[in-house]
Specification:
By secondary structure, this protein is α/β, with parallel strands linked by helices. It is built from 8 helices and 10 strands. A hairpin with a 7-residue loop joins strand 7 and strand 8.
């Protein structure tokens, strides 16, 4: 009798591109779809993914999702789907923020390792475009400080006030490089390093630390509200 498959499903619906991936422990299969009304494409995309991986929906025993930040509706799609599989399949659910994911990818990269060797006191900052002239920022300096949503000028000021060298990972508007925003003041991660990779979702799914608050979305307060307090 053939042993039942144990599939890990990774999902990112936080941005304009809906990305899904599946792993049986030996091979990772990935698909994506760009466009609006992702809720209409999610199930067909997942079914096509699993068919390509030679599996069925009942084989999914673990789900890893991106908790945010990003589109409100998009994030809810992943949360709802993961909740459904948890109920129907008894699947375990874990999830991480985009900040955690880009931090992980940068730390795994050769470019960061080389930079860190040259700048042992340096820290990594993740910068993501939020809305119009506003940005998300999280600096991984060991203090445990969480992410914030800032206006462009306040973002630049916060980065400038740091005394240690900064390695900046992230994307600007429409997924563009941070070069136009930050110039050459900081070392910038290669753009390919700043896009969520399927292998990252599968790798992080094995870390029990990401099971906590997995179904809690990350919604940040806009800078205009912060300034109004």
């Amino acid at each position: 009798m053939e042993k039942p498959k144990q599939i890990t499903l990774g999902m990112d619906s936080s941005g304009p591109t809906l990305a899904v991936c599946a792993s049986d422990g030996a091979k990772i299969t990935a698909l994506h779809h760009t466009g609006i009304k992702q809720e209409q494409f999610l199930l067909p995309l997942v079914q096509r993914l699993l068919q390509k991986a030679g599996a069925e929906l009942t084989d999914v025993k673990k789900v890893f999702i991106v908790r945010g930040p990003g589109r409100f509706t998009g994030i809810r799609i992943s949360l709802t789907f993961a909740s459904m599989l948890k109920y129907l399949n008894g699947a375990s659910v874990s999830g991480a923020t985009l900040f955690d994911i880009l931090y992980y990818q940068s730390c795994q990269s050769r470019s960061f390792a080389t930079w860190k060797k040259e700048n042992p006191s340096g820290v990594l900052a993740v910068v993501l475009h939020a809305f119009r002239e506003e940005y998300f920022l999280q600096i991984f300096d060991g203090t445990g400080a969480g992410p914030v949503w800032l206006g462009k000028e306040e973002l630049l000021a916060r980065l400038a006030e740091r005394s240690e060298p900064l390695y900046c990972a992230g994307v600007d508007k429409d997924g563009a490089s941070l070069a136009a925003l930050l110039g050459d003041k900081y070392r910038l991660a290669p753009l390919a390093e700043c896009r969520v990779q399927p292998q990252t979702l599968i790798a992080l799914s094995a870390d029990p630390a990401y099971e906590k608050d997995a179904l809690e979305p990350l919604y940040l307060k806009p800078a205009r509200f912060e300034l109004g307090q």
